[in-house]
Amino acid sequence: AQSVTQLDSQVPVFEEAPVELRCNYSSSVSVYLFWYVQYPNQGLQLLLKYLSGSTLVKGINGFEAEFNKSQTSFHLRKPSVHISDTAEYFCAVSVRGNTGKLIFGQGTTLQVKP
Amino acid sequence: DVKVTQSSRYLVKRTGEKVFLECVQDMDHENMFWYRQDPGLGLRLIYFSYDVKMKEKGDIPEGYSVSREKKERFSLILESASTNQTSMYLCASSPPTGYQETQYFGPGTRLLVL
Prior knowledge:
heterodimer, A: 114 residues, 6-stranded mixed sheet, 12 strands, globular
């Protein structure tokens, strides 16, 4: 079975500061990794995903994530955050052969302060 | 532009009522999903469907059923609503090779059961 752990439930940060949201996963088989963002009162939308190839993945809105197989991590980073990045962020995994079932982490609320 | 719509943004029901949550997607996707989102628990899969009239249980199917009579529509049914089903419900869809595909989410239905 697979599981996903997001290590921080809330991350407060000042505007223009860098941020890292941490995600670790557990799986005995190869997984595909996703980060989704949920802005207030909206559904989730994809930020980025890792399927194969380069372990550094770039997504929308200046976010990037690095897949680290040895540490089973997929941390999300942004070098300089904006107020508009305030949202909840979810890390998720899927497994080859499954019909798209995603297993989500608990979510991390990013609070960007002026 | 891809679109997943949910019939209601907010819903208030009484304990014991039968509740229908509707989801419609316009992307001709084979896969559709129902999740519930609770603080600190992330998203948990209730049911999913990979074709018309096909359904599979997710991680928390108890107290719920689903219906998929047409490809674009996936309904979640609470046979007898209970207070512990108060939650945010999110619908999503994806193409058939689901494990590497982006899921597209609706805006969610916030259900309060009194």
